[in-house]
Design a protein that fits this description.
- By secondary structure, the protein is of the alpha/beta class.
- It folds into 2 domains: 24-343, ANL, N-terminal domain (Rossmann fold, 3-Layer(aba) Sandwich), CATH 3.40.50; 425-529, ANL, C-terminal domain (GMP Synthetase, Chain A, domain 3, 2-Layer Sandwich).
- Helix content is 34%, strand content 24%.
- The longest helix is centred in the first third of the chain and has 17 residues, at 49-65.
- The relative contact order is 0.09.
- The structure holds adenosine monophosphate and 2,3-dihydroxy-benzoic acid.
- Residues 179-180, 224, 293-296, 315-321, 340, 404, 406, 418, 421, 427, 432 line the site of adenosine monophosphate.
Length: 530
């Protein structure tokens, strides 16, 4: 199912990338090696590797005792709490497949995840940021069970008696990660123990993680970046300490960096800018590396990070579908400031192809140094989304390359510079929004005839969303009403359009399609006037 062809799989095994180890087995060996070391700090609690190991054993048993079976899917919507780790390792040990929802997701997204993978349960938190997650989860149709951290049902999972469990297949689906997507609803990304562990292991090495490193998760930990680049998993792999920050703002994070002697963390560019602004009041001298990624880190910001925060900048360009690029810690400054890094693996295959042809094949490469659309294939890049045959025919080439939708240029050193994108997605400070998903919500409004959602340049976030709306003949809807309408349909707050423009009609392209390029140009002109 959606797997790598046998000859590729054999090659990745032969080169030692895929080692046949599961995450559950990894935790067992970590607990054996570093039992009494602190593994995770969060919410005032500190668990050693031995404790995390035991909690994961209990949760694995508790989940199976509750009737959930190996192979079942369970949506996990947890904020940055230590239970994220005990739950996810517990599910992995039980052979149950976690689906990583973000804390910002609401009814519409959760329902889609549950339906799409026929999830049997949701593991969430009773309340977070004044939102009743447990009630939200219980209202999702088709969910048999909801376990919420802070409620007795979850405590029962944690109190189960550990027992020996068969180790799941390391080459099978370990979890479903989310894609920001560019069409309709978010796609689900099937990752295996073998492929993900390879990217985690190499990320830990490339980011210089050691046993005495302290990794701080500032972004929501279920996101691929703080989970695996090198993330909490990379930190644990190295026997380091993980610190979970409840929120990413400087006022929350800086005291934690000081108190826990944090050495490495990762942020999106707007957060990096906010941290640079706020620096000076706290002792951040333990910080060695700041990873910046998720959206393009401009040169100006890149130059300010080292001096302001007293650490080395490491740019990261990654995607939940697989490919992750890093600038290396010993790269010349010029490359660190001006590129988004080079791939983890020498087996990551990169093709930069004709950007004007959405059906360009891996053979349609542009001349060296020119901008093109990035295609990639490799030992930790999926060959297809989960249960999405139709979309996969567009999103992957016949020979298995993933069409990232990103526009890049490659330097002679093999580093990639991200210069834009061809996919219909808005990158709102690292939060990805599929234009079509928001358009569909708007079109559900009775006064909306047509909608087109595009990115508008923003000084702080890089991009914000603007929804152009053509009304039906009746009364014109107001911008405020449409924004409220989208919010009330139960979507993540970051997807609610920042701007709404009601217009009589859309500009069209030569073939009669809505010209999003013309809409964007109009907006850029508008932004220039303000
Ligand atoms: P997703 O597929 O939702 O995991 O989002 C991955 C996408 O985020 C990439 O395809 C890029 O469009 C974007 N992205 C991630 N890191 C960077 C970066 N450092 N610079 C520019 N874009 C990035
Ligand atoms: O944006 C991303 O999805 C991302 C950014 C940095 C990512 O998935 C990653 C590193 O692994």
């Amino acid at each position: 199912m959606n797997g790598w062809p046998a000859d590729f799989a054999a090659r990745y095994r032969a080169s030692g990338h895929w080692r046949g180890q599961t995450f559950g087995a990894l935790l067992t060996s970590l607990a054996t090696a570093y039992g009494s070391r602190i593994a995770v700090v969060g919410e005032g609690r500190r668990w050693t590797y031995a404790e995390l190991d035991e909690r994961a054993h209990r949760i694995a048993a508790g989940v199976l005792d509750s009737g959930i079976e190996a192979g079942d899917r369970v949506v996990v919507q947890l904020p940055n709490v230590p239970e994220f780790l005990s739950v996810v390792f517990g599910l992995w040990r039980a052979g149950v497949v976690p689906v990583f929802a973000l804390p910002a997701h609401r009814e519409s997204e959760l329902q889609h995840f549950v339906e799409h993978c026929e999830a049997v349960a949701i593991i969430t938190v009773a309340e977070h940021e004044r939102h009743d997650h447990a009630a939200m989860a219980r209202a999702i149709p088709g969910v048999r069970q909801v376990f919420a951290v802070g409620e007795p049902g979850f405590a029962a999972l944690e109190a189960a008696t550990p027992r020996a469990l068969p180790d799941p297949d390391p080459s099978g689906m370990a979890f479903l990660q989310l894609s920001g997507g560019s069409t309709g609803l978010p796609k689900l990304i099937p990752r295996t123990h073998d492929d993900y562990l390879y990217s985690v292991r190499e990320s830990a090495r490339i980011c210089g993680l050691r046993g005495d490193s302290v990794y701080l998760a500032a972004l929501p930990v279920a996101h691929n970046f703080p989970l695996s680049s090198p993330g909490v998993l990379g930190a644990l792999h190295a026997g380091a300490k993980v610190v979970l920050a409840p929120r990413p703002d400087a006022a929350t994070v800086f005291p934690l960096i000081e108190r826990e002697a944090v050495t490495i963390t990762g942020v999106v560019p707007p957060l990096a800018a906010a941290w640079v602004q706020a620096s000076g009041r706290h002792d951040l001298s333990t910080l060695e590396v700041l990873l910046v990624g998720g959206a393009k880190c401009g040169r100006e910001l890149a130059e300010r990070i080292g001096p302001a925060l007293g650490c080395r900048l490491q740019q990261v360009f990654g995607m939940a579908e697989g490919l992750v690029c890093y600038t290396r810690l010993d790269d010349p400054d010029e490359l660190v400031l001006s590129t988004q890094g080079r791939p983890i693996s020498s087996d990551d295959e990169i093709r930069i192809v004709d950007p004007d042809d959405p059906a360009a094949t891996s053979a349609d490469v542009v001349p060296p140094g020119e901008v093109g659309a990035l295609l990639t294939r490799g030992p930790y890049t999926i060959r297809g989304y989960y249960r999405a045959d139709e979309h996969n025919r567009i999103a992957f080439t016949d020979d298995g390359f993933y069409r990232t939708g990103d526009l890049v240029r490659r330097t002679a050193t093999g580093h990639l510079e991200v210069v834009g994108r061809v996919k219909e997605q808005i990158n709102r400070g690292g939060e990805k929004i599929a234009a079509e998903e928001v358009e569909n919500h708007l079109m559900a409004h009775p006064a909306v005839l047509d909608a087109a959602v595009v990115a508008v340049p923003d000084r702080f976030l890089g991009e914000r969303t603007c929804a152009y709306v053509v009304p039906t003949d009746g009364e014109k809807p107001t911008a405020a009403e449409l924004r409220r309408f989208v919010r009330e349909r139960g979507v993540a707050a970051f997807k609610v359009p920042d701007l709404v423009q009601v217009v009589p009609e859309f500009p069209v392209t030569g073939v009669g399609k809505t010209s999003k390029r013309a809409l964007r140009t109009a907006l850029t002109a508008l932004a220039g006037e303000r």
